[in-house]
Amino acid sequence: QKEVEQNSGPLSVPEGAIASLNCTYSDRGSQSFFWYRQYSGKSPELIMSIYSNGDKEDGRFTAQLNKASQYVSLLIRDSQPSDSATYLCAVNMIKPGGTSYGKLTFGQGTILTVHP
Amino acid sequence: DAGVIQSPRHEVTEMGQEVTLRCKPISGHDYLFWYRQTMMRGLELLIYFNNNVPIDDSGMPEDRFSAKMPNASFSTLKIQPSEPRDSAVYFCATHLKLNYGYTFGSGTRLTVV
Asked: Which letter, b or e, does each residue of A77-93 get, where b requires 16 or more Cβ atoms within 10 Å of its Cβ?
């Protein structure tokens, strides 16, 4: 089992629809969770972070975290063609002693295409 | 702040040549990471430093790869000798506090012919 897995995609949605991106992680002790957006030929850009169970909203983006199910998702409402990119889920995993490794573990990414 | 600065942006070299990639972290960020990204393998962590000290280099593919961080303002990733399979985009990323996430540099696109 991979440490961080994302729905394989590619995901294609029409403009104005809700895009749902999913991520599961293996380490139950993981503490913080991030979504990065990467446009083709560009570097990853942090768009959302979430630390507690529940929802966190920022504009058209909502991150959802369920630690019991080891699941984090990103919803993009009113999707726009400019949202077309690869979305990377990243997790701050914890050592057995309870301290952080100091690094993020990334999923393989989901390619999202929003078509007009 | 100028962000994480990587150079060069593009590098084309012949097989067997030495390649040096450079990274200047954001001032005050005490963690620095080197990643490699390909379509096949995604984003792979090669090595990371904390306060200029290498913490984990288990992702470095083989002895041809080496990385240094001589001071808090500069890091290099060297490939000697380079091979076509090293062709990828190499990213440098830094953070001050992991709960804030990483900031990535613009990357170096390496092509080995």
From this structure: eebeeebbbbbbbbbbb
Instruction: Round to whole Å and give the CA distance between A112 and B7.
Output: 29
Chain B residues in contact with A49 by the CB 8 A cut-off are: 99-101
Distance, CA of A70 to CA of A61 (rounded, Å): 20
The type of residue at B71 is: N
Q: Does A92 contact B98 at a Cβ distance shorter than 8 Å? A: yes
Tens digits of residue pLDDT in A86-115: 999 999 988 888 888 888 999 999 999 999
Q: Which of A31, A42, A46 has the CB atom closest to B101's CB atom?
A: A46
Percent of all residues in chain B with a pLDDT value above 70, rounded to a whole number: 99
Show Cβ contacts of residue A48 under 8 Å, excluding neighbours closer than 6 positions. A34, A35, A56, A58, A61, A63, A74
pLDDT of residue A1: 67
CA-nearest of A87, A43, A108, A104 to B108 is A43
B99 vs A: CB within 8 A: yes
Distance CA(B111)–CA(A9), nearest Å, equals 27
Q: How far apart are CA A35 and CA A58, in angstroms?
A: 12
Q: Which of B92, B104, B50, B97 is nearest to B72 (CA)?
A: B50
Separation CA B73–CA B26 (nearest Å): 8
What average pLDDT does the segment B76-100 reach?
93
